[in-house]
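Appendix B, record 7
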Amino acid sequence: MSLIQHTKPALIFIVTGAMLMLFVARMIGHTDIIMPTFGALMTGGWLIQDNLWHYHRFNLFLSMALAACIGLSLAILSQQIGEWFSYIGILIGFQMVAAILVIGRTQIYPCFGAFSLPLIFQTTSWWYPVSVATLAGFMLLVQWCLEKSGIRRPLDEGEFPNLPEHRKDRMQFYLRVSTGLIPILVIIPVMQHLGDINVHLLLQAPLFVTYTTFCNEHSTFIRFPKQTWAQLVMASAIGMAFCWLSSYFAAFLSDIVATPICVGCSVALTLFLAGRIFVKRFPPAISMAITPFLATSLMTSVVQVVLFPLFIAVAAAYCIFMAWVFRRHPKYENMDLHYL
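Structure tokens (predicted):
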């Protein structure tokens, strides 16, 4: 089977999966189950033939579920203590998720998106971790079906060597990585307090996945920083446009029908343009095409809707730049991280 024959069915499954997620969310009236990170999971698990995150199936399912529970617990704690704690919670959750990846000897970076979403949107419903576990299981089931049908190569399951010195090095690695988030986590609440525009939009789950991906010098995406940035900005603009259109289509169709159709168009157009324009599709960009359908809850004016792609452009540039600074740090260069 040719590459195109492999790709087309996977693309159809990705679009259908995104539409199904939005349809169920609108039908039962729970936006908590909308998980943009699912876009990256579908793209990395169904479309990309390699084992992108060095995982085996049960490890991915368990890691995603635990990351969602960590994010939800910190979001509940944030509501009790105060909104300011959500920024500290991101740093705490980052290390807790890192511990899951270290113990599991894997690098499932979408876990960072799964934990951060409840803190960003102040989600406190247990529907969220249940939906994350369900979507992860659904992704793995479809992946298995694609393998059995010959559309996708069998997953080359694996994990890092279980060496104590590696665990210590990897925890130190993630601890240093998290320091790159501190400046933006300090600036955002200050700007939020001083201004009228909701700069909280600078924090989006796909950007945490982007940051950790670019901190890994063995990631192939670090060779295309400009293209990756452009994909994220393009996806946010496409997602915002179709999210805006869905409100108009809802006047003719019910919201249960209009929103899934628009998110399907958003994901399909992003996948098509990313495949045509760029060297490699960046999975978190597909997540970014879904994000506006959830992020509109943070937008209180038309200005913020228009500025959303600009916010993503600034935040994505920050993440990619800080990751570059991190990779060039002498302490990082001296660490033996080949197993990453």
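Remarks on this record: Residues 3-28 form the longest helix (26 residues). Residues 28 and 71 are 22 Å apart (CA to CA).
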